[in-house]
Amino acid sequence: MTEHFIGLMSGTSLDGADGVLARMDARGQLQVLAHAFLAFDAPFKAELMALNQSGPDELHRSALVGNQIARHYATVVHTLLQQAGLRSPSITAIGAHGQTVRHRPLEFDGDATRQQPAVGYTIQLINPSLLSELTGIDVVADFRSRDLAAGGQGAPLVPAFHHGVFAQADACVAVLNIGGISNLSVLKPGRLVTGWDCGPGNALMDHWCATHTGQPFDQDGKWAAAGHVNAPLLTALLADPFLQRTPPKSTGRDLFNPAWLAQHLQNHANITAIDVQATLTEYTALACANDVKRHANEAASLVVCGGGALNGHLMRRLAHHLPTLQVISSEARGLPPLQVEAAAFAWLACKAMRRETASLPSVTGARGARVLGAIYPR
Length: 378
Description:
Layout: E1 3-10, E2 16-24, E3 30-39, H1 42-50, H2 58-84, E4 91-105, E5 120-125, H3 128-135, E6 139-141, H4 145-149, H5 159-166, E7 173-178, E8 181-187, E9 194-200, H6 203-213, H7 222-225, H8 231-238, H9 241-244, H10 258-265, H11 273-295, E10 301-305, H12 312-321, E11 326-329, H13 340-353, H14 361-364, E12 374-376
Parallel strand pairs: 1-4, 4-6, 7-10, 10-11
Antiparallel strand pairs: 1-2, 2-3, 4-5, 6-12, 7-8, 8-9
């Protein structure tokens, strides 16, 4: 039976919400019928950024942001329906990721004897009930916490989807998603899928570019390409312990944030702004390339998706550091870079509605595969 699902994703780049409307067949094969993007305005983006840190009245502010995310998502849904020429009753469910503002898995609440291991938490702001009310469609949300409850990282969630879309029967394929944070999936024929967060993606580059040029991101990496990499700063950034940790692992703005960058820059006060941008771009490229070399050195290709795939300078630096691999955009494999994550949440919604497991213990470290997501009926 063919069904229609909508996937909605707003990632750590904080630029806005991507949505796709997809047709799903009985085998879970997906075809995107429509794609839409709706940017966050500057005040809302600033509030999301602020909620990544503790602050006054944050429970109240988080609840209101959850409502606003739902309204923002609902606008994207109506745009998708209009593009596809469909009505709400034609959609089985919406997979709504929400906006991550904290991600601290496996921390804080375990006991010293390890008889009760820490679960930690992950917070994605959204009001799923309001989204269902505004659209008249079942909503699946809160995809990450079930994996945390089973002892996993709750992230990344996309490697299972990457396997279904990009895997090859006769070759190892690496899939790199460069959003605000970068995550890598390694798809080896006949082997368990693996995947983890590599480190920063666009988050630090976008922050620095906005601060010093007034532009939300470095278009095609042209500003970075005009600068020079500062070797001492790059060495210091690459020494961050997260990059050396063995997977499973995940991270976010809890670690790689403006305060983290400012602390590093205290020891490198004489670097020009353009050279910092060049160094941050090289840092993202190297953090990702080094993980590919460590864990997927037999890969024939690196398929890149997310906003980073549109950064020509970053793509060239990845290719420079991975000369034996074909570094290509996901568009060359049939799915444009800005559609991949939203499509993944349409796929995850389908899995939840069919009560099929979607998590991969080989990725998150959980005790077993789990059905992900809570369902909010229309």
